[in-house]
Amino acid sequence: MSGIPADVDANAAPPMTIPLRHFVVALAFLVAGVAVGVVGGRAGYLAQVHLLLAGWVCLTIMGAVTQFVPVWCGVELHSQRLAATQLPLAAVGFAGLAAGFLTATPALLPVAGTFALIGVWILCYNIGRTLLAADPDVTAIHFGWALVFFALVTVAGIGLALDHAVGVLPLLGVGRQGLLLTHGTLAVFGAVLTTVAGALAQLAPMFTQADTGKVEAAVQRAETVLYPLGVLALAGGRLVGSAALARFGAVLVAAGIGVVAALLARQLVSARVEWSPMLTRYSVAAVSLIFWAGLTVTRWWQDPLSYSGLLGHPSTVLLVGGVGFVVLGTLYHVVPFIVWVHRYSDRLGFEDVPMVDDLYDHRIAALDAAALTLAYGLLVSKQWLETPDGTPLFAGALVLLGALLFAGNLVAVLVEHSPQSLPTLLTGREPTAAEDS
């Protein structure tokens, strides 16, 4: 258990069923999203985006912050009942959005969007109330901003869903492309990457055991202030069509992501612990985000308002290499860690027990890393090099293989080591009102 500081209070965590249920459902979205991408191609693009970014990434974030905000901040979760309620609402909403896009059923989108909005807003209220009782450190501030972005992105999403169904945006005087750009900006750079930056501020030093110097700490504090401001400026500029405002925000966003990646890279280089699947995947993310920031700042400076530049250039490097590998690496520790705490922590010192990294199969972890990294390289090379026509299909098959190996490895942890069965984790009794805070 090296790498876990003494002031982290695992006893403050909610019942293990709550975060683990989020992670299992999120893994199902991961596999479904990759499968839709392989089978559906461009026709399934919007469905795949919502399955992967909303379903896999955002449900993972929802489970992770519900677990670790109380642990890191040493405060009680505001409401276990609300935490248990957010998942089914958000999951139904995200799945419904994907189904609406996949089946070309616009009328389904506002209904599904409403479910998603309610589920996400429950998270925002519950974690927001929890953070109010915590000290405002770097991670807590990032998470607070992420909640703001989660709330805003669902509002923008509902507007787009209504426009798909009944065409309301012209009546409101809002341009569809501007709102679409704002929705994507708030989702990826706001909700997702603000959470990633906050989590890495805790996880990277914790699991590398690298020291954070005064210069790094000062740069990190500056990023904490400037990055959220950049997201708001970029999103607002894109909404109203102001290139100057969007350009100002774009520079801050690219610089902020570059700073987060550089700090992560520095801590990985200075790591004083044995290398793990988590750190291996973080290294891919660090290199990818530095590379993306360097290329994107020039592209955005020239044109921050184009749809093709929504996620910078190349977007594959940001989404797959940056976001994807951070989530993959984090889950390779978070899921076994939660199971270990509830199954083995009270036996430590009394009998031989496995450590956190002993709970999953390292051979499978190596295989999924190889498959996903090779697929990532093929997808990126397709944007610059002459590659065979079958390259995207082959890369998609590798991604599907890697996703199945990854999901299977983590589910096996639950099946073999969890004190509760997998069906109980998914359908077990929720906290009663008397148990709620």
TrEMBL record:
UniProt entry tagged with the keyword Translocase: no
TM region(s), chain numbering: 23-45, 51-75, 82-102, 108-128, 140-162, 182-204, 225-245, 251-269, 281-301, 316-341, 393-415
SUPFAM superfamilies per record: Cytochrome c oxidase subunit I-like
UniProt keyword Membrane present: yes
Stored InterPro entries: Cyt_c_oxase-like_su1_sf (IPR036927)
Keywords: Membrane, Transmembrane, Transmembrane helix
The protein, known as: Uncharacterized protein
High-level lineage: Archaea, Methanobacteriati, Methanobacteriota, Stenosarchaea group, Halobacteria
